Amino acid sequence: MAQEHHIVPAGERLELSFVVLPGESREINLSIDLCGPGAEAHLKGLYLCAGSENVRFNILMNHLTPGCKSTQIFKGIAGGDASVSFEGRIVVAPDAQQTEAYQESHNIVLSDNAKVTTQPQLEIYADDVKCSHGATVGRLNEDELYYMRSRGIPEGSAKVLQMLSFLSPVIPQGREEEVEELLYRHIVSAGAPARP
What we know:
This protein is an alpha/beta fold. It is built from three helices and ten strands; from the N terminus they run ββββββββββααα. The protein has two domains: about 140 residues, no CATH class; about 55 residues, no CATH class. It is about 20% helix and about 45% strand. The strands form two sheets. It has a five-stranded parallel beta sheet with strand order 1-3-5-7-9, with no helix packed on it. Strands 2-4-6-8-10 form a five-stranded parallel beta sheet, covered by helices on one side.
């Protein structure tokens, strides 16, 4: 798939959200150039894979001038035989002082056959910056599930609630109810019971 390229000039703000639902295999190739003081880019992404989907996120964030900000937060859940990868790179040019750039990729794996790889990267050539990245790949929290079950919530419903809570920070603003209902239907179709 061709790379999508965005140029963000001084004082402008770019916000993008990505949602990949079960049954969709996608490759998202994106590069963003922050080209003037005060330029900002904020990315959110989520995926929910329940079968044999193949999902790839390739993100390049270029901080080219001073005083720019960027955030990236990607979250997803992989089950079945799904294969997911996140490769994100933040590049801070030598003149791009006072850059603020943050990147996170957090993932839950529901099956032994699902595969998730994540490679957040920082390439910094300036010294007056605030930059960080982080990545996690794990399972549903058994302690949280036990707590909910001890309060009378059936196991399947507790898992659904935990997955929705995990994904909620990356659900696009203004569409929370619609996306949560859609996610709930897909989680249910993947084997969890319907709402009580």
